[in-house]
Protein: Citrate synthase
Amino acid sequence: ETGMFTYDEGYTSTASCESKITYIDGAAGKLMYRGYDISYMAKEKSFLDTAYLLLNGELPTKEESKEFRIEMNKRAFVHEGIRKLYDSFPDRAHPMAILSAGVSALSTIYFNHLEINTPEEYREMANRIVAKVPTLAAMSYRYSNGMPIIYPDLDKTFTENFLYMMRAYPHKHVDLKPIEVKALDTIFTLHADHEQNASTTAVRNLASTMAHPYAAISAGIGALWGRSHGGANESVIRQLEMIGTVDKVDEFIARAKDKNDPFRLMGFGHRVYKNFDPRATILKDIRDKLMDELGISSELVAVANKIEHIALNDEYFVSRGLYPNIDFYSGLILRALKIPKEMFAVIFVIGRTPGWIAQWSELRQQKTIKIARPRQLYTGKTERTPN
Ligand code: SDX
Structure:
C-alpha cells in the first residue's frame, strides 16, 4: 500500500548544527556554558553574569558587570502601548499566551530596528529583549489577575525586580528574603541555555529564514509552552496536587509504567540526560535548603519525596534512565517562592531568553545561512489514478 521512497541524503538543516555556546554530555550529566561548568556559574555567578557570558562569549569584568546591570535596569521599561494590547486580553488568559504576544509586539515598536547586522545592533537588540522580558512577564501575571502593573524599580537587581513587579502591592512593602532571590536567580541561570532543545530549534529555524529576533523568541515561547518541554514544571505541580496524598503514589507509579496508559510522570526523563540532569542536582540542594529555611513541609513535598525515592530505585525508571529532571525540582522551589504555577513556564522563558538570543545570533552570523529544511520520509500511498 505505501511505498518507501528514498530521499536525497545530505540535506542540510539547522535541525542539527555546530555551536560554540553550550556543551552537554548526557551520559556524564555534564553541562557547560561557553566552557564554564554550570555548578560554577550557579554557585559563583549571577544570572546577569550568565546572560552576559552567553551573549558575549566571555564573563564580564567588574566594570562590564556594573554597566550591564545599569543597562538592564534602564531598558526594563516597556512602551505604554503594550498595556493597550494587554488590556485586550480576557482575565485569566494564560501568561504564556500574553508573553508571546508581548514579545512579538515589541517588533511593532522597534520596527526600525528589525534588521540586525552590526555588533552594536546585536548588543542593543539582545539587551533590549533580555531586559524587557521580565517586565512583560510580570505584567502578564498582573493583567491576567486583574491587578495594577508595578513598574520596574531602578534600585533593584534584575531578579529582585522581577519578584517585586510580580508580587508588590502599592500599599505594602514586599520583603524579599535573600535566599528567595538567590534561589530564583539560580533557577534563571540553570535555564539559560541548553543546546539544541525543541524551543531552541524553533528559534534557530526562524533565524535561518531571516525572521527577526522578536518573532524568533515569540516562537521559542510557543514551543517551550508544551508540557513535554518547558510546561513540565507547571505539570509537575498539577500532577502532585492531583495525586494529593502519599498513599496514592503507588497507583500513579503503576500508571506511569503501564504502556497502555498515556500517564507520564512529569519531571522525569530527558531526551539527552540518561543520567542525573546536573541542573536537577543543584536545584535539589536549593529545594532542601529553602524548605528548611522557609519551614515548608507539606503533603505535596511528602508526595514528591516518595515519587523521587521510588523512581530512583525502581527498575522501570532506572533501566530507562528516567531520573528527576530540572522541572521536577524547579516546580517545587517556585511553589515555595509563592509563584503561581501558571507562571512557571514564564520563569523558564526569562531564564532561556539570553540563550535563545545567543543561538539566534550565532546562526545569523554564519558566513552562509542555510534555511532549515528537514526532509520527511514519505510512507503514504504510491502513485495512483482514479479508477
Ligand atoms: C525539558 O531537550 C531539552 O534540553 C529540554 C530541556 C531544556 O532545558 O530545554 O531540558 C527542558 O524539556 C526537560 C524535560 C521536561 N519534560 C518532562 O518532564 C515531561 C515528562 N518527560 C517525558 O515526557 C519524557 O521523558 C521526555 C519527553 C522528556 C523524553 O521523552 P522520550 O525521549 O520519548 O523518552 P525516552 O525515549 O527516553 O523514553 C524511554 C522510555 C520509553 O518507554 P519504552 O518505550 O522504553 O518502554 O521511557 C519512557 C518511554 O515511554 N518514559 C517515561 C517517561 N519518560 C519516558 N515513562 C514514564 N514517565 C515518564 N516521564
